[in-house]
Amino acid sequence: MKAIETKWLLKKKWEEEKCQILSRRWKLSPLLIKLLLNRGIKEEFFQDFLFPSFDRLHDPFLMKGMREAVDRILLSISRKEKILVYGDFDVDGITATSLLLRFLGDLKFPSYYYIPHRQNEGYGLNIEAIKKAFAKDIKLIITCDCGTSSIEEIRYARSRGVEVIVTDHHQVGDDIPLDFIVLNPRKPECSYPFKELSGVGVVFKLCQAISRKVNFSVEKLKSYLDLVAIGTLADVVALTGENRTLVKLGLERLPSSGTCLGLRALLGIAGLSGRKIEEREVGYILAPRLNACGRLSLAKTAVKLLLTDSSKEALLLARRLEKENSRRQSLERRMCEEAENILSGKIKPVLVVASRRWHPGVIGLVASYLKDKYHRPALAFSIEKDIARGSARSIPNFSIFEVLSECSHLITSFGGHQLAAGLTLPAGNIKKLEERLNFFARKMLSSDDFVSYRFFDAEVDLKHLNLPFVKELRILSPFGPGNPKPVFIAKKVKIYRRINKRKVILADPAGGKEFEGWGFNNEEWENFVPGETVDIFYFPALNSWRGKEDIQLEIKGIVPSEIL
C-alpha cells in the first residue's frame, strides 16, 4: 500500500530588520528570534516562554470547583475518613494517582488507591469498584484523569454515602450536575486561564491549592514535578503555557528523580542513570515502560513502583516493567504487520481493522501506526466473545468524537476527543460502523486532507552547524505539540555511506563536514543510495556520551536535490 503523500512548506518569512532588532534586544541569534515568531510567540511573552518560573503559575483557585474540592478533602482529613484515589490506567493517570498519594502521605494522611483493569473494567469509574470502596468504608473518592463522563456512577456512589471529587481534563458533556465537584479546566463555565492541562497537571493544581491552606512546603511541592513532567509528556498535550513550565521544571529534576526510588530504579534499568533527561527520553523510553503493565496486565504495578520506599522492591518492579515492555513491543510489531495484511493494499478514507487474536491493550498503538503511516483516520478492534473493543486515531478536520456521536446507535459506549477515542460495540456492527465512518469522511474530507503538510523553519546549511548553535536551540525545549522541534532544510547534501536501515553518514561537500543522520521512515530511506545528492529536512540534536558531545541529525524528510 502506498504511504502518505508529504509536502514540505516554509512556515513563514519574517522581515530581517525586525529579527535583527529583536536579536540585539534579547541577545539571541536572529534565527532563534525567527523560531520564536514561527511558534506564534509575541515579544511580550518571550520572557515567560524562554525562562518559565514556578512563581508565575496560575492561582489554582481560579479553577471552578477548587475551593469546594479543597474544603471537602480537608474535611475528610480532619474527620480521619478513608479516602480512595481512583486513577486511570495510562501514564497520565498513573502519575496523577502516584502524585496525589505521595502528597497525602506527606500530609501524614495515607490513602488507598484503585486502578481499573483496562480489559475487564475499562475506562472511568465503575459500579463494582464503588461497591468495593463502600464495603471498605471509603467516604471520599478522588478520581485522577477520569470521571468527567461517569455521571451515573457518581450518583450511585453518593447514594451510598460516598462523595466523589473528579479531577480530569477530558472533553466535557452538557450533563454534569451542578452539585458535582468536578475539577476540569475544559468545563465551559470554568474560567481557568489555561485549558490544556493534563490529568496529572490538574492533580498538581489541586495539591498546590491544598498546600496553600495547610502551609505545605513549596520546595516539597516542587519535588513532585518529575511525575508531572512524565505524565504530561506521555499524554501528548500542548507544551505551551503552564504545561511548558511544569514539564521544563520537572525535567530538570528527573536525572536525580528526587526521593522517588522507583523512578531512579527505572532510569537505571533503562540505561539513563546520570544522563540528562529530555522529552525524547520520557516519550520513547520511560513512558512506554510505565505504560506496559497497564496495557497488558495491571497498571498498579507502575503505581507501586512510584510509591515504594524500598530500593530492593523498586528494582524488582522496574525489572517487571522492563519485561512487560519487551512483550508489548513484540505484540505491537506482530499486530501492525497483521493490520497491514488485513488492509491488503485497499485504501479507504477511514481505515478499520479488527482481529480476534489481538491484545486489547495494544490496539491503540496499531491505530496510531496506521494513522501516522497513511495520514487518515484509523480504528483498530480486538474482538472477544463477539464484543469489539476499539481505539480510534484521527487527523485534523475529522473530529472522531463528533463522528462517533453520529454513529452512537451502533456503539455500546465510547469516549474521547477530536483526535482520539476509545469505543466498545457488538462485533457484528464493525462493518456497518466502517461504512458510516467512510460515508462521513467522504462528505467532510477532501483529497487535500490526506496530504501530510509539513513545515520547515529556515534553510541552514550543514557547514553552519556547531555546538553553540545546537545548544542555543535547546532554549526552546521541551518540544512537542504546540512547540515542535525546529526543522531546517539543507540542500545538496551527499549520502556518504549507509550504517543500517535507519542511519547514514551525510557529507556537506562545500563545508567539508560529516554528520551521522538517522530517521524512522525506512521506505523513504530505501529510495536513496550512497553517492547520491539529496535535500534533507532535519533537526540538529545534541548527543552526549561519556562526556563527549557531538551533533546528530534527526532526518524528518529527504528528497532528491533536483526536486526543489
Automatic annotation (TrEMBL):
The gene is recJ. This is Single-stranded-DNA-specific exonuclease RecJ. InterPro entries: DDH_dom, DHH_sf, DHHA1_dom, RecJ, RecJ_OB, SSDNA_exonuclease_RecJ. It comes from the Bacteria. Residues 457-556 form the RecJ OB domain. Belongs to the RecJ family. GO terms for molecular function: 5'-3' exonuclease activity; nucleic acid binding. Keywords: Exonuclease, Hydrolase, Nuclease. One of its GO terms (biological process) is DNA repair. Residues 82-232 form the DDH domain. Pfam families: DHH, DHHA1, RecJ_OB. SUPFAM superfamilies: DHH phosphoesterases. Residues 350-438 form the DHHA1 domain.
